[in-house]
User: Fold this.
Amino acid sequence: MGEDQVSQRASARRRPLMTVQRIDHVVLTVADLERSIAFYERVLIMTAVTFGEGRHALTFGDQKLNLHHAGREFSRRREGPRPGRSICA
Assistant:
């Protein structure tokens, strides 16, 4: 097999099967809601918002991070979310 064929095969393997246009939100499970909000506001200049029945999120542009307080998540996963480990998209 020539170099060109190897290069073409490698290039074909790297092509995405689909292109993501937008992610509505990402859910982060956090141990300390207030500290997490303060961190993201201070370091990443995100805006904290409250919605629904006291739910919390951080926004930046059209993107949103929903925050779930560990132990009080809105939907339980089979293994259960854990601070610093589980991201639900």
User: Anything to note?
Assistant: The first strand starts at residue 26 and ends at 30. The beta strands are 26-30, 47-51, 55-60, 63-69, 87-88. Residues 20-88 form a domain with the 2,3-Dihydroxybiphenyl 1,2-Dioxygenase; domain 1 fold (CATH 3.10.180.10). The longest helix spans residues 3-14.
